[in-house]
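Subject: for your reference before the review

Hello V.,

The reviewers asked for a structural picture of the protein, and I figured it would be easier to keep everything in one thread rather than splitting it across files. Below is the amino acid sequence we used in the manuscript, unchanged from the supplementary table.
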Amino acid sequence: MKKRIGCLHAHYTNIKYIENAFSKYDIEWLHFVDPGLMHRVSSDETFNNSDAQKRVKEQVEWIAECKVDAILITCTNYIAFLNEEHPSLPMPIIKIDEPYIEQICQSQQPQMILFTNPATVEGTIDRLNTHAEKYGAVDFEVIIIDHAFELIMQGLREKYNQEIMNFLYQFNNEERPLSVAQLSMAEAAMSYELKTGKMVLNPLHALVDYMIDRLELRSLSVE
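And here is what came back from the structure prediction:
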């Protein structure tokens, strides 16, 4: 039986990544996109964290009323706000960074985590550190690719991907595991893998494996 999954995004570009990743499964996607929340958080001094928490909670409850089987949140900042105001709902709420963070924590090696959007770093790393407590110390270095995120916000996806790939090429001889922390970076990371054979963990790979098991998607394969 087809699954209906509601997705909450901070930017419309994430829709393509999600639908392509699950294209071989019989899923009906309902996408809800609200870039305004993060704009208010970053630019309106009168709009505080409690306002943002209330807004995300309302969004998630609205999606739940659309009779979905699960809710997927693809923005790490939305996830951080929701943690403070988590609604009690009958369907699972899947946070895109949870399976990714779990894979990072399972690695015993020092590793490098790349971002393009500085605004997502604090929330992601706070959640990573909290999750890592059950594993002991997790050794990682955070690196921000400067001036790249503005490209994707301008709709310049190809230039954005190329900027990330050019940055990754600097680490061809790096022995530490590499990962990209944002969904928007997954396409470039996968292209880099194909061209170099060097693995780069990304939230999309981890998410697909997690959702296949969590939502029992194998029986919905259309291949």
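For the response letter, the relevant points are probably these. The beta strands are 3-9, 27-33, 70-73, 93-95, 111-115, 140-144, 178-180, 200-201. The radius of gyration is 17 Å.

Happy to draft the paragraph if you're swamped.

O.
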